[in-house]
Amino acid sequence: MTIIQFMRVAFFRPMPKLNIWKTIYLNYKLLPIKQAVHFPIHLYGKWNFRMMNGTILIPTNQVKCGAYKFGFDTAGYFTSLINTLSLHTDSTIELGEEVRIGQGVQICLYPKAVLKMGSFSSLGDNVKIVDYQSIIIGKRTGITWDCQLTYFNSHFILDSATNKIFTICKPVQIGDYCWVCNKTVVMPGTKLPNRIIVASGSLLNRDYVKLELPERSLIGGAPAKLIKSGLLLYSKHLFPIDWLKIEILSVDCPVIWHQR
What we know:
Layout: H1 3-11, H2 20-30, H3 33-36, E1 41-43, E2 46-52, E3 55-57, E4 68-70, E5 82-87, E6 92-95, E7 100-101, E8 106-109, E9 114-117, E10 122-123, E11 128-131, E12 134-137, E13 142-143, E14 148-150, E15 158-159, E16 164-165, E17 172-174, E18 179-180, E19 185-186, E20 191-192, E21 196-198, E22 203-204, E23 217-221, E24 224-229, E25 232-234, H4 246-252, E26 255-257
Parallel strand pairs: 1-4, 2-5, 3-6, 5-8, 6-9, 7-10, 8-11, 9-12, 10-13, 11-14, 12-17, 13-18, 14-19, 17-20, 18-21, 19-22, 21-23, 25-26
Antiparallel strand pairs: 15-16, 23-24
């Protein structure tokens, strides 16, 4: 790739346009009328609504035009993916402040299921969420592109020795200030403590809170295991950055920089 090609991709890539009709429909369909008239949720790019029988809850201080821009804030890896939203009867999405969703995100909530996203949390491009009851994503947690979160295992498995069927549905809870890197699969029953970094391509399938992982740890693998502790996820929302000291810090303490 030449310098000119790189500059075109990095700075002149096409950005998704506001989808006016889908924005109007979603706000009036899923929000109370007093909130919908302010159009707090803006949808960008292509959207596919399969079922819209649920609700979206937002904080009162976010009832302002364009408080949420879904499908706009993208890492730039994909530019033409279609977002898909399916909310079955009595399902609910609870949003904190300034939640961000990229392109190609697919969210499916079954009846009475709840998806909670804490303030400043984000879903990267092409993330898939299938929720039968409860999936919680903590504040300032980033679920990066191509990740998958699911509340159930789809099919029943019989243990022939005990003649028992394994439980296939368990809630998922991701802590605050976590960074779940791309292509990670989050299985039912996963509980992740605060301030954990998950390496790319990992499989989360257990209660990591019970493992008493120290905060600021890096885990990875299939299934994910502790790799290293003492890592800091630097973000402009979390810590002020002194660029002159970054190199010094990286010698004494491992630093991972991730702009958000």
